[in-house]
Design a protein that fits this description.
The complex is a heterodimer of chains A (113) and B (110).
Chain A lengths: L3 E4 L2 E4 L5 E7 L5 E8 L3 E10 L2 E4 L6 E3 L9 E3 L8 E8 L8 E2 L3 E5 L1
Parallel strand pairs in A: 2-11
Antiparallel strand pairs in A: 1-3, 3-8, 4-5, 4-9, 5-6, 7-8, 9-10, 9-11
Chain B lengths: L3 E2 L3 E5 L4 E7 L4 E9 L6 E6 L3 E5 L2 E6 L4 E6 L8 E9 L4 E4 L3 E6 L1
Parallel strand pairs in B: 2-11
Antiparallel strand pairs in B: 1-3, 3-8, 4-5, 4-9, 6-7, 7-8, 9-10, 9-11
Classes of the chains: A mainly beta (113), B mainly beta (110).
Chain lengths: 113, 110
């Protein structure tokens, strides 16, 4: 199993550009989520999904869109990048009925100029 | 605002025991998890409590008191490799939403 994979690992964008951060998992997990991590702020939940076709907002959803067309994939879209979105983005997945254990991808480091 | 509170930094001596506390909000609480993150890496799961009491996993243990909205992570026989950030994470709304604390940076010194 590859676990949770994220692409790209690094990305530099100009203000106003759009892009999609990819996330995939091969563990058949129902629950998937996106977090951003900034110094001194911990991990903040952006969006999450409890299954294909079902998504909901987390703590900091503004400026981001998600969709969940399959169990495996959960892409995060930045509609118009802003310098405030410079961060490290982590995708995670877990199964319902488990013991609170989320599996994290390696992260995407995004710089918006 | 932040619904979870934990100390920002802790320093402990190699071979000693350290406890990292976490308090949480009670609305819709389902369970409390703990994660470890080394610099530049991804968070990795350590432990989980849904019921009151102590859960032990090797050198790491986690405790929960639902009546006090409080939990802690206990690390025994500290090793230098335990230097990392430790996050508590609250599950609410029937295991549909996971919110993390700001993390505690643990430094283990010789």
């Amino acid at each position: 199993n590859a676990g949770v994979t994220q692409t790209p690992k690094f990305q530099v964008l100009k203000t106003g550009q759009s892009m999609t951060l990819q996330c995939a998992q091969d563990m058949n997990h129902e629950y998937m989520s996106w977090y951003r991590q900034d110094p001194g702020m911990g991990l903040r939940l952006i969006h999450y999904s409890v299954g294909a076709g079902i998504t909901d907002q987390g703590e900091v959803p503004n400026g981001y869109n998600v969709s969940r067309s399959t169990t495996e994939d959960f892409p995060l879209r930045l509609l118009s990048a802003a310098p405030s979105q410079t961060s490290v983005y982590f995708c995670a997945s877990s199964s319902f009925g488990g013991e609170g254990d989320q599996y994290f991808g390696p992260g995407t480091r995004l710089l918006v100029l | 605002g932040q619904s979870l509170e934990q100390p920002s930094e802790v320093t402990a001596v190699e071979g000693a025991i350290v406890q990292i506390n976490c308090t949480y909000q009670t609305s819709g609480f389902y369970g409390l998890s703990w994660y470890q993150q080394h610099d530049g890496g991804a968070p990795t799961f350590l432990s989980y409590n849904a019921l009151d009491g102590l859960e032990e996993t090797g050198r790491f243990s986690s405790f929960l008191s639902r009546s006090d909205s409080y939990g802690y992570l206990l690390l025994q026989e500290l090793q230098m490799k335990d230097s990392a950030s430790y996050f508590c994470a609250e599950m609410t709304g029937g295991y549909q939403k996971v919110t993390f604390g700001i993390g505690t940076k643990l430094q283990v010194i010789p």
